[in-house]
Design a protein that fits this description.
Residues 25-100, 301-320 are annotated as: Disordered. The chain is α+β, with helices and mostly antiparallel strands. It is 34% helix and 16% strand.
Length: 320
Amino acid sequence: MQSNRETASKPAWFYRLQALAHKRRKEKGIYSYSDDDEPMPPIKPEEFDEDLSDHVSQPCDSDCEYETDAEGGQCCKKHGYGDDRSETSGGFDHPDGPDQEYYLLKEMRTERKREIYERGGRQKVLEEQQEQHREELEFESLHIKPIQEAINKAHKQKKPDPLKRIGGKHFDLWSTDHLQYCPKGANPTLYIEFYSVDEWDDAKTDHPERKSKRVSGHIYMLESTVCDLDYFIPPKYPSTKTYPLPTLDENAKGQLQFIDDKYLTLKINPDPIFEKCGDPVPSGTPNVLLYYGECSVYSSQRARQKQNEKGAKRRSASPE
């Protein structure tokens, strides 16, 4: 006689998401659920939407009737996100047993349903996401514009001054490509940082002269380093010339431009970025993603200057 575990059939959405979660764990070198230090499956809330029934896209009406669900909450009889009774028929193990992953995913799915209802339905959620994406692109473009202007200026400049020290510099990265094609992390910070032990001769600090000292660095995205940079000799002069990205990661390929002391550009393939979050590169993603870098020291100075200008305007506008 077969056991309940052998005969119980879980819903289709579970098998789809289970396969996705297992794939992501495997790509991170985790080959069993019990070996994962993270208790919740590596699934994003929006990845539950594909299998949600049509009524999930509709918010409750004023004449909807409610009942108490299995967890003691109020559940709409017509649209309810409740306890998925049809999906939890007998035969499954206790939540702490072999079916633990199912119950964790089911809990996450219920939370996603609740979120969709509270925000006015799936269509409303989609509209909010589109509006947020538009605002993010506009914000990103505001930071990119002065860098593009500096690139146009560099094209016309014939005798630029030598670059100052590169080792020790931190460049914030801005990219509409990243917003459109890459996964979103909890921390949106993107940057490239360079460092060296001795790029300058301390004996010549009054009249610094560039020595052939190498610098290295790393690129940070999605809450971690996506690419370590090998040692390289920085260019002496700024320009729009492209230099191969000196990466230690064989999957990462790209180029750098050192526009001036404040700005640079980075081109990199998407593979090392998606590799960090355990996802394949989606079809339609460009082979090269473009990032614009702004020196964090300069951006902080510029932000303070703008704040001071706003304060001066307020003071001048106030009555005596």
